[in-house]
Design goal:
The protein is an alpha+beta fold. Helix content is about 25%, strand content about 30%. The protein has a single domain, classed as Roll (Thiol Ester Dehydrase, Chain A), CATH 3.10.129.10. It has four helices and five strands; from the N terminus they run αβααββββα.
Amino acid sequence: MDPHLRRDDGFSRVEQRIDNMNTPFTHPVRVYWEDTDAGGVVYHAQYLAFLERARTEWLRAHGHGQELLRLQHDLVFAVRAMTIDFRLPARLDDALQVGVVLRECRRASLVIVQRIERDGVRLLDAEVRVAVLRASDFKPRPIPDALYPQLKALQEAASAHPQPSNPTNPSNAE
């Protein structure tokens, strides 16, 4: 059985996972044939899957598996809106890093910024607005009191240590 499902409150932190809370979270992704078009370029909709996986692993790395949240707290996160800036294409067999940073935590929503890079070159930027819903009826709900301070701490850590700009062309800085 998953040790995360045995926690009493579902929101206890795993110390070894949060020691580096100020370190930006990244999730590795390899590009396979199934991710590309006939020319070996990643199909634009596949980036959404890469971003979703990274957000899920970000939650898990902070001790909050989505199944645990659903079962113990009747909570799910749903993407409400997303803005994506496609900068450069990813290609077959690329090793990508998908970053996740919590920019804003409100009582019933989150704003997450993400980026996808290959060898330190930014390929994509995304801003994801996430609604907090009851799993039982998909109606808005507040973030549980036990989870909210932990998410706020992640937001504060991110704002205290902003990520350096990494434009695709260093001579064309943002």
